[in-house]
Amino acid sequence: MELKDPGAELLTSLEQMIFKDMPQANLANRNSIFSEYEQLRQGTGLQLDEFASAMGVTRAHVLEWEERRTQPSTTELKLMRLIQAKKPLLQ
């Protein structure tokens, strides 16, 4: 029996609810993880520290993504999409 990460399942479910009306082609056609990260990061309109806090990671972790030293995980990208879509909830 395979155990699934409940956090990842929750993020997937929330993402599906928020993006249900968007064509799947838009979600599937990503140039790269970094270009998607850059679009999502800019789309939030949050300062670096605010973005790190919303993501639940350190400022240094976000800088790793900014400088393309490490890639955000699939789960982190899903959370970024949710933050961008629901930005007013953070303010």
Automatic annotation (TrEMBL):
<keyword id="KW-0238">DNA-binding</keyword>
<dbReference type="Pfam" id="PF01381">
    <property type="entry name" value="HTH_3"/>
</dbReference>
<feature type="domain" description="HTH cro/C1-type">
    <location>
        <begin position="39"/>
        <end position="90"/>
    </location>
</feature>
<dbReference type="InterPro" id="IPR001387">
    <property type="entry name" value="Cro/C1-type_HTH"/>
</dbReference>
<keyword id="KW-0805">Transcription regulation</keyword>
<protein>
    <submittedName>
        <fullName>Putative transcriptional regulator</fullName>
    </submittedName>
</protein>
<dbReference type="InterPro" id="IPR010982">
    <property type="entry name" value="Lambda_DNA-bd_dom_sf"/>
</dbReference>
<dbReference type="GO" id="GO:0003677">
    <property type="term" value="F:DNA binding"/>
</dbReference>
<dbReference type="InterPro" id="IPR052359">
    <property type="entry name" value="HTH-type_reg/antitoxin"/>
</dbReference>
<keyword id="KW-0804">Transcription</keyword>
